[in-house]
Structure formats: structure tokens, C-alpha cells
Amino acid sequence: MKVAVIRFPGSNCDQDAFHSLRDDLGIGAEYVWHESHSLAGFDAVFLPGGFSYGDYLRCGAMAARAPVMEEVKRFAKEGKPVIGACNGFQMLCESGLLPGALLLNAEQKFICKDVYLKAENRTSIWTRGVDKVLRIPIAHGEGRYVADDELVARLEGNGQIAFRYVTASGEQSDEANVNGSAHSIAGVLNESGNVLGLMPHPERATRALLGSTDGFAILNGLKLIASNL
Amino acid sequence: MTTVRVYVTLKPSLLDSAGRTVAGALQKLGYEELTQARIGKLIELQVEHYDDARVKEMCDKLLANPVIEDYQIEVVS
């Protein structure tokens, strides 16, 4: 099992992802530059957080059109696991791999804190291991997920809502919905469930020293696949 | 050389939280008649040979995100 951690100019969670995967999960990880045209030899993709291309125009807009993204799209279509956290989630929406979009937080401010997440989908590789409310950090200014009622109904029908922001006891509330996302949505899946985008950072929650190990519940999905390879 | 202006605006159904803050600030400055402010982007392009379809393509491919934004093209000169 080898995960491609894609680096864009302005990525800043690439090292977090790399070390979380390699040192905490114990699976192979390698950096791939955004200008690469090949993902040969890789089994999964991690699109890291940061401010790719300075967040110019729209967050993730330029990254979504980088050469490597054609390969990521092919990868996703083949059913291989792709995860995008924070800026990576924005890229996945901008590239059309995931529905919806992410806008400036409802209260405008950059929010950096731990949040609680509840898995709605329980069958995808990314969510089947989540058996409790997770505490995972967020750090973003533009994480308000927007989707109209029709799209939300479709996502709910298809089981594409991966995570919702909730209270510590797992209840939805306006206060827990930190950035004002539609229906408290924190993460979504593609229709086949192999592509996950989420604003929280599971890669920052795989070591007790960093405050939480709840990120394992999500990233361990990669190990399930690794054991089948 | 032709100058083309592309105006990108957030779809009216979406909350523009930055625009809301600006509106609040204007109201506090005494402009009670103001009911709303929405912030968009103006992108000025210079093209050697203007081709309507090509500029639209630029908007669809990168400059605007059709999920959340609308755009208008204005040929200046």
C-alpha cells in the first residue's frame, strides 16, 4: 500500500499527512508534485490542506486544474481511495469529483479548534470504522459547505453525507455547526464512496501527543484496503 | 488588443457573509437606506483577438464556478 500525498505550491498540511500515514498508520506514503502526469505504483491519494496557489480566485480552483488532477480523476473513477482534507476537500469540489462547494465561513472568521463529528454513512471505506463521535481539529476560513435542498436530498438518499458537525454527545445544533454549513455537513462522499472530502483534519489526529487519535477511525480505511492488496 | 471585463458574482440564493459584514458597516455609518451589499469579482482580461466563445470557455473552465457563481462578460474596447 502506497499513498500519494500530492503537493501543490502553497500546500502546508502535506507533511502532516505524510507523517500521519507513514509513522502513525504505518503505511507507505510518498510526495507527488502537482505537475506530475502519473500516479503509477500508488494505491490511494491524499490531497492535503493548505493554501494551494495562494487560494487565488477561489480556494482549490487552480489546484483542481493542475496536471496531476487528471490522474486523480482517473484514479477516482477506477474506485481507488481518494481523500481530500480542508484545501483538499475544496479541490475535490472544484474538480467536480464531489458535489457542492465551500464558501467563506458564515461568521467570516478563520476557525482553528477541535470539532465533533458524527458519521452519517457507515458503509464506505472511510466511514465504516467510525463507531463513535469523533473529536478532530479544523483550521479553515472557507469551509461553509453549500448545497441546495435538492442536492442535499440527493446526498442523503445516496448515503453521500459522510460527516456532520455535532455536539460532544452527537446532537446537531447551530452552535456545533461552526462554519454555518448546509445541514451541518462536514464531509461528503462521491456516489461510489471511494472519494471523501472533509474540512476537518484526520491527519492531525493520529497521535495522542497532538491531542486526539480519532483520525485513525477515518484513515484506517486505508489499512482495510492495504490488507486486501 | 481587446479589453474584456468578466464580472463574477455569487448566486443570489447563497449567503455572502463578507457582503453582509460590509452592509452592516455601512448601516452603522448612517446609511440606513442600505438593505444589502454583495461582493463579487471583476477580472479584466486583455486578448489579442476577441472571440466570444473562447472567453466564455475561460469563464466556464476556471474563472467562475457554476455551482456557486454567475458571470457576465463586457467587452470594453
Characterize this entry briefly:
Chain A is an alpha/beta fold and 229 residues long.
Q: How would you explain this protein's 3D organization?
A:
The complex is a heterodimer of chains A (229) and B (77). Chain A is α/β, with parallel strands linked by helices. Chain A has a single domain, classed as Rossmann fold (3-Layer(aba) Sandwich), CATH 3.40.50.880. Chain A is 24% helix and 25% strand. Chain A is built from five helices and eleven strands. In chain A, the strands form two sheets. Chain A has a nine-stranded mixed sheet with strand order 2-1-3-4-11-10-9-6-7, sandwiched between helices. In chain A, strands 5-8 form a two-stranded antiparallel sheet. Chain B has 77 residues and is an alpha+beta fold. Chain B has a single domain (2-75), classed as Phosphoribosylformylglycinamidine synthase subunit PurS (Mth169, Chain: A). Chain B is built from two helices and three strands, in the order βαβαβ. Chain B has helices at residues 17-28, 52-63, and strands at residues 2-10, 41-47, 69-75. A three-stranded antiparallel sheet of chain B has the order 2-1-3, covered by helices on one side. The longest helix of chain B has 12 residues, at 17-28. The chains are: A alpha/beta (229), B alpha+beta (77). The A-B interface holds A 57-58, 61-62, 65, 93-94, 99-101, 103-108, 144, 146, 148, 180 and B 10, 13-15, 17-18, 21, 41, 61-63, 65, 67-68.
Which CATH class of chain A? Alpha Beta
* Mean pLDDT reading of chain A: 96
Specify the overall morphology of chain B.
Answer: elongated
Count of spatially separate domains of chain A: 1
Q: Could you describe the largest sheet of chain B, including whether it forms a barrel?
A: 3 strands, antiparallel
Order of helices and strands of chain A: EHEEHEHEEEEHEEEH
CA(first)-CA(last) distance of chain A: 7 Å
Total DSSP E strands of chain B:
3
Whole-number mean pLDDT of chain B = 96
CATH architecture of chain B: 2-Layer Sandwich
Enter the CATH topology name of chain B: Mth169, Chain: A
CATH superfamily of chain A: Class I glutamine amidotransferase (GATase) domain
CATH fold call of chain A: Rossmann fold
